[in-house]
Amino acid sequence: ERDGVSWTAMIVACAQHGNAKEAIQLCQQMQLEAIIPNEVTFTGILSACSHVGLLDEGCHCFVSMSQEHGIIATLEHYHCMID
User: Fold this and answer.
1) pTM higher than 0.85, yes or no?
2) b/e per residue, 2-29, with b = 16+ CB within 10 A?
3) What is residue 34's DSSP assignment?
4) What is the DSSP letter of 71?
């Protein structure tokens, strides 16, 4: 059974290999299975979007992170947004 750590590991792996759309899909699937993304999950998603130029998707995830999930942005999150 997958938990938040295994989902996040898959998302970060996709991000590191330039598969941003797959990382986003995994995050959506993760949430459909009622597993809540954490700060590291969002760092992976934002990093993935940054690496391949998905600005709109990255901005949407950034807003969702704070408004829907109550996660306060860290320096790592802001770094991904300005990268």
Assistant:
1) yes
2) eeeeebbebbbebbeeebbebbbebbee
3) T
4) P
